[in-house]
Fold Glycosyl transferase family 2.
Amino acid sequence: MLLSVIIVNYNVKYYLGQCLHSLTKALKDIESEVIVVDNHSDDGSIEYLKPIFPYVRFVHCGHNMGFSRANNIGIRQSNGEYVLMVNPDTIVGEDVIANALNFIRTHVETGAVGVKMLKADGSNAMESRRGLPTPMAAFYKMSGLCARFPRHHKLAHYYMSYLSWDEPHRIEVVSGAFFMIRRKAYNEVGGLDEDYFMYGEDIDLSCRLLESGWQNWYLPLSILHYKGESTQKTSYRYVHVFYESMLIFMRKHYYNSSYLINLPVKAAIFFKAMVALVKNGLLSMSRSLGFRGKENNPKSAYMFIGGNDMLEQCKGIALNNGLDAEYINASQDSCPDGHLKYLLSDPERMIYVVYDMTVYSYSHVLSIFAGCPMKHVSIGTYYDNVLITAEEVMCNE
């Protein structure tokens, strides 16, 4: 077996279905297996997806094992010479896996590779290339110096933003959203550290690969990572879980570092957690008083692009959900520019462009968005009676 794909799922059956649909195309002609480890979802994920994807092996956990442990469970049951851990809220272009495999197979010193992750508007996600969060790198990030000087090799090392997006580069941290690893390297370093329940496990694994002499690489191959865009990173829970993971990492790898460095980093962590708590308290209060936020913007509209069958089905979804919608009969052959041919610039109006994935390829749609990212335009897809955007899922019942 050449490749084992491991996906950990928790209550995101429609996003996972979309991911598996894209993987079906990306794994064509590749000797592979796909294993989904379900962390005790209560949304009927397995029952819904098993009939649609009979080639996928589903492993049901009796309770939520966390990301690290669930991935380790799936990897231990797999047989591939290479392993790809991928998040369920991703879309993988048709050529991404084949090209990533070709790179890691021909570069024998490479332990793991990551790819270019796109946000829902087509812009690049900074998490695609990262340096190790040493105490000083973490301090530069949390103090704002990393964002203020993005081309500085020292101050901006956390996101390595001085590197080109369009060329392969050696990096330090591979994102867990798409983490392809050589099984020999995985076994050598002992797999994912299960002390990390969620967040930080990819940083720790990347660090141990480097310590063992392996190289980690970034490849300019595009995937979409929905939750990289929509995760509420200002929430108290996110701040608490994420930065607690960072403290675990610091204690494990930098336990001898000076308290003069560690204390400011810990203080910044607690400060950010308190800010998130206050922000969420104010947001809850404003909602209880009837104020509407940006997420409830009534000016949003939908543009559906695809074949006749898709357009007719989406009309039903639009009517049932009261959507302001436009319908365009087109395909990749007849309209390779997609929404760029029809879209008028209106930054005051959030537009969700939904493509028919039976007449457009995932790679092509991602390339359209990446070539002209706009903050007020967000990607959507439609297949098998399910409409998916970064914010919501709508079905044609």
Summary: The mean pLDDT is 87. The chain has three domains: 3-133+160-230, 236-288, 295-395.
